[in-house]
Amino acid sequence: MRFIIRDDEEAACSYVANYIVDRIKHFAPTPRLPFVLGLPTGSSPLAVYRLLVDRYKAGEVSFENVVTFNMDEYVGIPRDHPESYHSFMWKHFFSHVNIRPSNVNILDGNAQNLEAECIAYEDKIRAAGGIDLFLGGIGEDGHIAFNEPGSSLASRTRVKTLAYDTILANSRFFGNDLSKVPKMALTVGVQTVLEAREVVAVVVGARKAPALQRCVEQAVNHMWTLSALQLHPHPMLVCDEDATLELRVKTVKYFKNIEQVARAQGFEQILPSTVRTGPTPLPTTIITDEFPPSTIPSPQPTTSRLLRATPAAEYPVRSRSPSPDFMPDRMASRINEPALLRRLTPDPEQQPQRAEPGLESSVLMSTMTMKIVIT
Ligand SMILES: N[C@@H]1[C@@H](O)[C@H](O)[C@@H](COP(=O)(O)O)O[C@@H]1O
């Protein structure tokens, strides 16, 4: 998991906005092969939208060939209600950029048949080639989209009853009147999010700190559905210092250090993009007796649906440049003794340059001497 920590909300959102712009530009979308972007609502991504609009107005990015799918929508309030997610998205983002209205997809919380609406939404995502980057926020109870505590981690787009905590949190948008907050919503499922090629969650403010702690430092748990990102091959959390308040100092330092090391090595922690060529079929297992026999165990038919649904092969193959995910972050690399480091690093490609034979033995000697002295 990539975990980016910035001093404040503005810096965190600026990182996310820049990241999205880079991903779109790198992808170079066309009408035939658009970039498919999943989007959230809420106050956390507001600055991201503002900055994306700024970048668009500065002529630095175009949304002409971007297709969007929003995460969720309330059930039962009119589409043009000021607090509907339709209104939110047009007010804060879509009406300020050159996106084609026909490329915007938002669930219809007033559909005659809500179930059918959800199934059709999944079909639309699939038909668009899957989501390239799903941007998300997080609820105070750790929910992603409206996947409230207890949501199945294999869930798909569906009707969801909102948790009391969420109704309470969102009442601030409805004049603090609980009775005005919709009690149900349509939302993409946890599995829908996990199937995106990349997931980026922006988490800002001390209110989110307890949830962030559970999602980062504790195990995958349906009570904190953002924690399911631990199962994704390319998740990224971007947060401000306030959101880290409940994390251990050690965790914060660890992730900050990872980012610093990556940067020092010339990685910007951005996935090299391989242009998508359309929906990739699920890999099939071919078992053959032909020579030479494979020594790699084939996936077993008992592999869970969840794991089969997110195979690494579905995500962009990193071919050209190495990715930070593969960068060794080993305690061994901090050892300043070439001989010992070589012994602890079996992979020849990761080994340091071999030192002069004389020098090496003198380093080894001094190590041994030091050990004797310490003993
Ligand atoms: N369905 C949305 C979520 O997608 C969002 O992440 C959450 C947090 O919103 P905020 O950023 O305003 O705290 O609000 C709602 O519940």
UniProtKB/TrEMBL annotation:
InterPro entries per record: Glc/Gal-6P_isomerase, Glucosamine6P_isomerase, Glucosamine6P_isomerase_CS, NagB/RpiA_transferase-like
Alphabetical list of SUPFAM superfamilies matching this protein: NagB/RpiA/CoA transferase-like
Domain Glucosamine/galactosamine-6-phosphate isomerase: 8-224
The keyword Nucleus belongs to this UniProt entry's keyword annotation: no
Annotated spans, Disordered: 311-330
Any one Gene Ontology cellular component term annotated for this protein: cytosol
Catalytic activity of the protein: alpha-D-glucosamine 6-phosphate + H2O = beta-D-fructose 6-phosphate + NH4(+)
Top-level taxon of origin: Eukaryota
GO molecular function: glucosamine-6-phosphate deaminase activity; identical protein binding; isomerase activity
Record flagged with keyword Cell cycle: no
Pfam families for this protein: Glucosamine_iso
Annotated keywords: Carbohydrate metabolism, Hydrolase, Isomerase
GO biological process, alphabetically ordered: carbohydrate metabolic process; glucosamine catabolic process; N-acetylglucosamine catabolic process; N-acetylneuraminate catabolic process
Enzyme nomenclature, EC number: 3.5.99.6
Family, similarity comment: Belongs to the glucosamine/galactosamine-6-phosphate isomerase family.
Function: Catalyzes the reversible conversion of alpha-D-glucosamine 6-phosphate (GlcN-6P) into beta-D-fructose 6-phosphate (Fru-6P) and ammonium ion, a regulatory reaction step in de novo uridine diphosphate-N-acetyl-alpha-D-glucosamine (UDP-GlcNAc) biosynthesis via hexosamine pathway.
Protein name (database record): Glucosamine-6-phosphate isomerase
